[in-house]
Write a structure and sequence with these properties.
Number of domains: 1
Shape: globular
Strand order of the largest sheet: 1-2-4-3-9-10-13-14-15
CATH topology: Rossmann fold
Strand content: 15-25%
Helix content: 25-40%
CATH class: Alpha Beta
Structural class: alpha/beta
Length: about 350
Amino acid sequence: MRNTFKAITACIAALLCAGNTQAATSACTAFGNAPRTVNKLLSQAQNALVTCKNGIKLGGFNDGDGLARNACFYDNGAATPAHPLPLVVYLQASMARIDAQIAKTGLIDARITTNLTDDATSEGFLLLAPLPRFTNHYYPLPNGYSLGFDVWYRQFAREPQTVAGIRYAPNVDFATIDHFIDEQIASGRVDLRRIYLVGYSNGASTAVLYAQNRPEIAAAAIYSAPDPYGFLNDPCQQQPVADATSVISEISVPRTDAPIFHVHNDCDVYGSCPNAVHFQQQIDDSGTAQMTTEMIDKKQNLVNTCDAICGIDPNGSPYNLKSRLTGTANHNRWPDAWNARLLDFLRMHPLPPPPPAPVQ
């Protein structure tokens, strides 16, 4: 039955991917998988439906695949070049469009009322949400082909990289996030010591990777992140390492001091609780981030053990019935009782001040 379901899933994915800009490949590389296939028409149609309610839609950027990209920006009029405010970058979960999703996080209201600094006169922050594309994922249907960020092609540098004579272009989702953050920095209204990430599910996995690859990110606070280095049927899983490597099963992480706070459920979709526990251990063993993980139950209370009925496989349990039912319900509710702690974690982790200028 499992093999039949996988075969059906593969056939549907193949049909959906027909005519896209890049051909899928099963060959693993120094950067994991090939870039995920993208459907430009569905991406444009989905993003056209985004209203960026209470904010504005940004555009004017085409990614490396030639796809017009957008972001939602929620301004705070208190930010000026003379009085810059922190920037929070929200990276969304896959499948759902941004409007309803970001509304339930409380971040739109928090951008006016929450102080992410130790300065009593700096209340509020700027909020930016780069939008994903409609791509092929290594998640089961209906999430196997949907809106989401590519965490499987792991060439996250800003410039092309050449390994063993092969040129690898930058990950287009990371380049898109770079563009919209750089655009806000150029305004002069961003506190450069306080550029933060908040991520949800696939966006949480993206936030981990982005923080590990961008030294300008001060900290990340995330919810329900699948391990971006290995989850479910990803054929090119890799181990993060702090040093340079020439082994395809490993990926070098250029930044190892990124503060990350991860909140996840004891029962979550696809049996991802054991995967989250494994992910934390993997980060600890490799020394590739400063990550702290907290586990919560359906009432958002702290617990210490995954619900074994939802699955015990550290690589995930996509066919577990309870994880598909209870786990999906848990996954789809934002942990609002934890908002204050998530945001306070960001506040407590700015980048260090720059060193004093040398005496002339």
